[in-house]
Amino acid sequence: MTTLAAAAKPITSYRKYWASRFGNAPFLPMSRAEMDELGWDSCDIILISGDCYIDHPSFGMALVGRLLEAQGFRVGIIAQPDWQSAEPFRALGKPNLFFGVTAGNMDSMINRYTADRRPRSDDAYTPNAEPNKRPDRAVTVYAQRCREAYPGVGVMIGSIEASLRRIAHFDYWSDKVRQSVLITSKADILLYGNAERALVEIAHRAAKGEKLSEIRDVRGTAFVVQQGWRPDEEWQEMDSSVVDLPGHVDPHLNPYQEIPEQAAEATKGSDPTAPQVIRIESREERLAKRRAERAKTVIRIPAYEAVAHDPVLYAHASRTLHLESNPGNARALVQLHGSRDVWLNPPPIPLTTEEMDFVYGLPYARNPHPSYGDAHIPAWEMIKYSVNIMRGCFGGCTFCSITEHEGRIIQSRSEESILHEIEEIRDKTPGFTGHISDLGGPTANMYRLSCKDPNIERSCRKLSCVFPDICENLNTDHSHLIQLYRKARALPGVKKINIQSGLRYDLAVRSPEYIKELVQHHVGGYLKIAPEHTEDGPLSKMMKPGMGAYDKFKELFERFSRQAGKEQYLIPYFIAAHPGTSDEDMMNLALWLKKNNFRLDQVQTFTPTPMAMATTMWHTRRNPLKRLSRSSEKVDVVRDGYRRKLHKAFLRYHHPDNWQIIHDALINMGRSDLIGHSKHCLIPPTPPGDKSAAVRHRLGAPVARQNSGKPGQPRTGQGKATATPGKSFGGRPQATGRPGAKPGSKPASQAAGNNRSKHKR
């Protein structure tokens, strides 16, 4: 990362735009009246967002807006506009430079719909959680309305929604492969990933008169060009089938080859009678030559028309994109849509610690815009006392969008920056009582973890640093994080700091001292972790560790809790119906839950999100984690309604409503031995009371089936279920979400929160 960042222009090094003379706005304006108060006659850049405006660095619109303001630009915001006409998009007048369009912190389809494709009844990013304040596929709709409002003005799209739809992608909600969002939105340019570096460069170039539609050389951008376009004549095109090879793409030098043999290779085909000048290139020269060749190479992945109808080609395109995701060695990609190419430049170079500090140290008001009054905004309530300490995730979980969006390289802030933000919360945020709710990020314990050798990191093509095992080149030292925790809780006015971000426990067990620090000072009774499953089949498709690491972490967690004299519990999260999960896998997971006396209150069912590797499995029934062919590994996916209900029911085996479907499934699976009152049994032999007939009718499950569902029939759906505290079969008091809980105690759902966090900005 150090080598990469050294080659990039710092985002703090640009000369400020002339409008910097207006200074910083208390809040970025959302109306003409606010612009008048600031003395502005126009905005240079107008941001359109599907979220309400909260001036806090955890919200992408505020972070981007304040970053542009720091470059000297006048930035206005139109938040959650009525998209039925173009008039609301004229609220701040015509921008001098361009519109910046974002769906918000979440993909609009995931924000609006459950995995059962049912509309959600609330929106955490809207005042008073009011639903239906953004359209489906918001980036496309907003961009089109910007074009209608002011034809000829440049339109830039970004955010996680645009980022994950930058090439042809499977769209779960319409159940088909859709074109790149660049095609549907008709935007001039798309910024993907962490876009600060690209955004600042493009804004300054636009201010000098360049059109967005003419900027073609910025990393982390995508755009539409005519088929066959090249930046210059030195570029060469490579077919993606060349990339999809096991191991290294570039040929290795033969270590056993003698120098004379190397010379012979270098002169092969020349006139043997002519005098030869033999020069042996150094390793550094050879590497430099290869980098130069890669920098001028574009890889053509199968066209939209091909991947839309051929699952193997779709899986191949997905695998190629993920193999070309390391900023240190990724090449440009191009994909044909009709007669036009969607061109993707290599990923953005990650920010340095100094640049991260700059971005998070901007003058945020740290509150919702005053126009919302006292409205309740759930997303704000969740994070207003939390601090983001890093970005990125090298876990590579196939179902998660973080890696595809933020990348695998960890970008960390300095201790000084983080501690300063805690003081800002203490001094500026109303209602602060001394409790910091989180010091985290995509993963709680990846702060300042990286590859031991920048050169190895730059050339690596692995999809995960921790699967199937933790890479020997990965630094797993948690001492920096331990030191940060200690300094943070020593600040005046800070009484308690909890850690609520998801913990990577296979990394944590490498540092028992970290677990001790965490357990004794930063767990508020519950700690959420995500094994996701117990069985090797689905875990291998998730790229998650086996349960051995969980068991070791649990042992250390309980030991250090006892030493501290605290009664604390682990709250595990599991996914139902993930690709590669059989009915038997879910049955075994249910048996594990029963053995460990877990009663889950929340159930997470796999949701296919654009560009995720697991979505590729779900759509194609192929495994893109391995080299692909038409005879390659097939993946069992769960699509039909009966299996979907069954997998979800297994996760909540204890609930009376699920007795009938589990009972019938166990009989069909030949596991009637699990029906009874014995300790090893999963469910009792008789239904709970007289409710069974009505419940069974509602579920639509047959009395007996020869098969519980055809292999390879994918399922849909995500749901949350809340158990009645203190009751299970027979009315006996039981734990609700944690082992050893007393009757009537706090359900785990109240501690764990809403599990939409896998899909972040």
TrEMBL record:
Residue ranges occupied by any Radical SAM core domain in the UniProt entry: 379-644
Metal-binding in keyword set: yes
Cofactor note: Binds 1 [4Fe-4S] cluster. The cluster is coordinated with 3 cysteines and an exchangeable S-adenosyl-L-methionine.
Keywords in alphabetical order: 4Fe-4S, Iron, Iron-sulfur, Metal-binding, S-adenosyl-L-methionine
Composition bias type Polar residues, residue spans: 705-721
Annotated Pfam families: DUF3362, Radical_SAM, Radical_SAM_N
Region (Disordered): 702-761
PROSITE patterns: MTTASE_RADICAL, RADICAL_SAM
GO function terms (MF aspect): 4 iron, 4 sulfur cluster binding; catalytic activity; iron ion binding
UniProt-annotated binding residues for [4Fe-4S] cluster: 393, 397, 400
Cofactor: [4Fe-4S] cluster
Record-linked Gene3D superfamilies: tm_1862 like domain
Alphabetized InterPro entries for the sequence: Elp3/MiaA/NifB-like_rSAM (IPR006638), Methylthiotransferase_CS (IPR020612), rSAM (IPR007197), rSAM_horseshoe (IPR023404), rSAM_sf (IPR058240), UPF0313 (IPR022946), UPF0313_C (IPR024560), UPF0313_N (IPR013704)
NCBIfam families for this protein: SAM_YgiQ (TIGR03904)
Family label: Belongs to the UPF0313 family.
Name used for this protein in its record: YgiQ family radical SAM protein
Species of the source: Aquitalea palustris
